Amino acid sequence: MADTILKPVEINKGVFWVGAVDWAVRQFHGHHYHTTHGTTYNSYLVKGGKTALVDTVHIPFAAEMFARLSDLIDLSKLDYMVVNHVEPDHSGALAQVMTRAPQATIVCTKNGEKAIREHYAAEGWKFQQVKTGDAIELGTHTLNFLEARMLHWPDSMFTYVPELSLLMPNDAFGQHLASSGRFDDEVDHAVLMDEASKYYAVILTPFDALVEKKIQEVVAAKLDIKMIAPSHGIIWRKNPMEIVQAYLRWATSPGENRVIVAYETMWGSTEQMARAVMEGVAEAGVEAKLYLIPTADRTELIRDIVESRGLVLGCSTINRRVLPGMAAILEELRGLQPDGKIGFAFGSHGWGGGAVKIIEAALDDIKTTRTQDGIEVTYRPTPETLAACKEAGRKLAEALKG
């Protein structure tokens, strides 16, 4: 018998959360995502006559999942193992499940089977490939499937239980948030939406157009959605369409009329310039946030860049390049390709420059509309240079207002 703390949670009639809570994790996706509040790995058992396990957990937490499952089912009687997404934080315990349930049929997309075979030995495993519109009858419950290619892997799909108006979309609509409660009405709403926005910005921004298209497809299918159970974080039951509407807004908006000034400085000259830019933006009456890159929460910074129209980046030059923190931010922005930014670059150098041109090239790569050429200074900014920085900030703010 599982310990009380490892009991399953019935989230809907015949559907049980059997996942795991990771309170300690602070870095995700190879240390590129800072998980301030930990995360969860959500797995769901559907009992409707026949039984289906929807997704598993990250392999270090397999014992927690099996402890919860032991209260509900003898895995040697499991009928289906539904794999919505093969990334190891969701399929990590798959091989252990199949060892205990060799009779179970793995349900996944065509790309899903390919990815499973590339991740695991899969010897002797039975597969049933599904595509949008396919369904499996369990008895009292039905599992309908909706492919979601590149949201955010080629194998991704959603599982929907029409009898319960329950959507299990794996990584879509999730957030990295560990909590003792399983539902949206059991956690701080401001923290919940903050983490959901970070999750979208860092994971799904490159797929904005696909997100918009998929939401339109779900709307066109007239799915009745009363609960959304993603594979990270809480389950949406109070107002599940709130997160759907937020995704549509994040996918289609170029951001708020706000300026993000992010900089990295060696001996303080670039910092003086950054503060002068901020002065100009603020005096023009536009909201702005200032980030010193090495001390910033990078996930929060990236989220704020994605959700803001104005972007100003500054850096000192080292070895004709940018400093390492700025280099990482530029590379991440190139990958995410956030839309609709306007702004400029600035920086200081000693006997030879280079940083400003590198930043401008990155801004061009993400199709930023530059409000002016970069501002460069040798060694220390003069009062005239700081005045030019302030004026550049004011001009950018006026462009945002216009």
Describe this structure in words.
This protein has 402 residues and is an alpha/beta fold. The protein folds into 2 domains: 4-252, Metallo-beta-lactamase, Chain A (4-Layer Sandwich), CATH 3.60.15.10; 256-401, 3-Layer(aba) Sandwich (Rossmann fold). The protein is 34% helix and 24% strand. The chain has a 7-stranded mixed beta sheet. Strands 17, 18, 19, 22, 23 and 24 form a 6-stranded parallel beta sheet that branches. Strands 12-13-14-15-16 form a 5-stranded mixed beta sheet, with no helix packed on it. α6 (208-220) packs across α7, α8 (269-283) packs across α12 (383-401) and α10 runs parallel beside α11. The longest helix is centred in the C-terminal third of the chain and has 19 residues, at 383-401.
Would you summarize the structure shown here?
The chain is built from twelve helices and 24 strands. The protein is an alpha/beta fold and 402 residues long. The strands form six sheets. Strands 1-2-7-8-9-10-11 form a seven-stranded mixed sheet. Strands 17, 18, 19, 22, 23 and 24 form a six-stranded parallel sheet that branches. It has a five-stranded mixed sheet with strand order 12-13-14-15-16, with no helix packed on it.
Give the helix/strand layout.
Layout: E1 9-12, E2 15-17, E3 20-22, E4 27-28, E5 33-34, E6 39-41, E7 44-48, E8 50-54, H1 62-69, E9 80-82, H2 88-91, H3 94-100, E10 105-108, H4 110-119, E11 126-129, E12 135-137, E13 142-147, E14 157-161, E15 166-168, H5 189-204, H6 208-220, E16 227-228, H7 241-252, E17 256-264, H8 269-283, E18 287-292, H9 298-306, E19 308-315, E20 317-318, E21 321-322, H10 324-336, E22 342-349, H11 355-365, E23 369-370, E24 375-378, H12 383-401
Parallel strand pairs: 8-9, 9-10, 10-11, 15-16, 17-18, 17-19, 19-22, 22-23, 22-24
Antiparallel strand pairs: 1-2, 2-7, 3-6, 4-5, 7-8, 12-13, 13-14, 14-15, 20-21
